[in-house]
């Protein structure tokens, strides 16, 4: 069997396997990044024209591109609709970016920790994944400068707002400093913002791409966290030098994004109805976050440290007594509890033991306390066994 | 700017540029492969459950996988739902197959001519595209055997039923012979059948994958030609040795296919309503084919040779006096006529002058005669200029 060399780097995805296990209804899952089902808005399809069923443009629906461009401009991103590419969920942005930049051995720079599926797809294409360490307010700037001086990454991939998995939101100062460094070294920025709208303290910081003066950039977002992931509608906005290549890569990947989902997204983005939905969603998730924080304090205050997230969908726990959290997973699932071990979020998993990512948006509040109690018990037991 | 090596092979797509030009309403287009808009069925969304908006399985909706498997079994393909992967249109099957098999320099074997977008994506991944010549009833078997003896293609890609662009349908004998050769040499078959259901003489031949005894295989289809391309719902069915790799590649490409389109497809596939729709569609396209044949006889009988297609969406013309048909395109568009030059359907375009692919499904019958008349005039003028 002669597969491509790439297939030898095709890892089994922990996410997929855990999501599969977590399908059992009795499982209390802190594992995924799923929206709460009660917050999925009702859809109205009455007005959808019949010819939306026809083939469409690879770029996406013109009206939807205008809406995404207008939304980005309100964030300070100077762009036109001609720079917007509608993609099949923002995961596809990573596939297109990997195709655009990565050969076997190409260096790319990522946060440590970073989004697991980004790490996987960049590695699949053969990237050498370098890491810049995350602090509470963004990357360590000295490390970033040193990395840019010594290495030649094809791009840097950042999730500056309510990062998955760490929930870190970059400070204003670090956003500016990162932009200045990328301009200085001429390194392309891929800025991924799926969680921007899920802010609990009302504050919003301008994207880093809006602060660049020279470097090329791709800014990507999605309706999956605010509207409906099942539509598979996301977007990327790219600097004009990159857009034509990304468009051709999109066309060869799947011709164009499904138009039914695009039409539905058009009914929401930029509308009053969407703003109201977002306000409701933020309140709902803030309450879930608060409930989760209280339950964590009851069961984890002796076991772990964490920052309360100001947005997004996750708590990121650091165990006071580190251990390989991947070894906890089977035992947790035996107790009908699912969570995401921290190790796979690092390009060198074995050097980063002792973190857990816990999703707070999806779990039924009535089962939250029991779920965290069981998870804490699994950890205590493992630590006792390790000490013995 | 340090792009990947692959980007240097990223061609401007003639299809996309022509489709863009053909958007002007006054253009009489024979270029695309678009369904007739009047044949797009009306959609009913009333019964769609709200939680279809949630994230789904990378494999696709379980019920839809069952339906596609059942449909394939009626064609003689022994398979289970566990071998079915729902993809974002069958174009995505080509992306996944390229990732699975192609490194820089990997040999793959294609029909000459073959589907343009397949050629492009295999070349994008660095494939060395070898060709087996098509005859009226399928590939030249002696050439195929010689190619398999002398070369080691990672796979062979075939479109045996109403091929795009040539409209060729393989005979029973050649289907059996091809299967036997692939088993003998252990070469994987990718069989692409978007046009299978669009048969005008009622006959149907078993897929080649159903005749294999040993070789690995991927069978792929779509609802784009029979239902709605805008849904972007296709499927692949793979031999069990390939499926797990394809599933992981699908997940890294876009997590999963949009569930709204999948739900809509589930309302049709395997239903009485779908059978009725297909019958209507076949009658409608047969009439268009007949009208096109008559108009071609009026305007092209001195200019070109062709076989009347027994299915699919295209006529494939061979000019009696060959010329590079790409040079005709600008002049045709000036006359508000669009068509597909034949050269890009070959891996060595400059060795295959003098073919045109004409789509008969999309053009308004009231404008058909005028469109073909203008196209014939453009060709005559070019031939006169060439002779002068």
TrEMBL record, chains A, B:
UniProtKB keywords: Aminotransferase, DNA-binding, Pyridoxal phosphate, Transferase
BP terms from Gene Ontology: alpha-amino acid metabolic process
Matching SUPFAM superfamilies: PLP-dependent transferases (SSF53383)
A Pfam family matched in the record: Aminotran_1_2
GO molecular function per UniProt: DNA binding; pyridoxal phosphate binding; transaminase activity
InterPro entries: Aminotransferase_I/II_large (IPR004839), Class-I_PLP-dep_aminotransf (IPR050859), PyrdxlP-dep_Trfase (IPR015424), PyrdxlP-dep_Trfase_major (IPR015421), PyrdxlP-dep_Trfase_small (IPR015422)
Domain of life according to the entry: Bacteria
Aminotransferase class I/classII large domain location: 50-375
Cofactor: pyridoxal 5'-phosphate
Subunit structure and binding partners: Homodimer.
Family designation: Belongs to the class-I pyridoxal-phosphate-dependent aminotransferase family.
Protein name per its UniProtKB record: DNA-binding transcriptional regulator, MocR family, contains an aminotransferase domain
Organism ancestry: Bacteria, Pseudomonadati, Pseudomonadota, Gammaproteobacteria, Pseudomonadales
């Amino acid at each position: 069997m002669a597969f491509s060399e790439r297939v030898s780097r095709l890892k089994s995805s922990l996410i997929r396997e855990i999501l599969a296990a977590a399908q059992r209804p009795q499982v209390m899952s802190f594992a995924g990044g799923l929206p709460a089902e009660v917050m999925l808005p009702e859809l109205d399809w009455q007005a959808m024209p019949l010819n939306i069923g026809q083939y469409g443009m690879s770029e996406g629906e013109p009206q939807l591109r205008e809406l995404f461009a207008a939304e980005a401009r309100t964030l300070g991103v100077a762009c036109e609709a001609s720079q917007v590419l509608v993609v099949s969920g923002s995961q596809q942005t990573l596939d297109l970016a990997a195709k655009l930049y990565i050969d076997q051995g190409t260096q790319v720079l990522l946060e440590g920790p970073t989004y697991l599926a980004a790490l996987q797809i960049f590695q699949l294409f053969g990237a050498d994944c370098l890491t810049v360490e995350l602090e509470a307010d963004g990357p360590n700037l000295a490390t970033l400068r040193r990395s840019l001086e010594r290495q030649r990454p094809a791009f840097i991939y950042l999730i500056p707002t309510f990062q998955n998995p760490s929930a870190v939101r970059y400070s204003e100062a670090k956003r500016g400093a990162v932009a200045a460094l990328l301009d200085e070294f001429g390194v392309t920025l891929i800025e991924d913002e799926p969680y921007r709208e899920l802010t609990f303290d009302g504050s919003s910081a301008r994207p880093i791409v809006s602060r660049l003066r020279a470097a090329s950039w791709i800014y990507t977002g999605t309706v999956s966290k605010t509207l409906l992931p099942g539509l598979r509608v996301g977007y990327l906005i790219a600097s004009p030098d990159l857009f034509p290549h990304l468009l051709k890569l999109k066309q060869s990947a799947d011709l164009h994004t499904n138009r039914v989902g695009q039409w539905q997204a058009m009914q929401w983005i930029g509308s009053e109805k969407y703003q109201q939905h977002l306000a409701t969603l933020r309140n709902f998730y803030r309450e879930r976050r608060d409930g989760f924080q209280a339950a964590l304090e009851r069961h984890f205050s002796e076991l772990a440290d964490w920052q309360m997230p100001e947005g997004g969908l996750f708590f990121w726990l650091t165990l006071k007594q580190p251990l390989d959290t991947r070894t906890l997973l089977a035992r947790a699932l035996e107790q009908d509890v699912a969570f995401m071990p921290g190790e796979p979020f690092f390009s060198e998993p074995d050097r980063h033991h002792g973190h857990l990512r816990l999703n707070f948006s999806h779990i039924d509040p009535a089962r939250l306390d029991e779920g965290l109690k069981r998870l804490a018990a699994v950890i205590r037991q493992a630590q006792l066994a390790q000490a013995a």
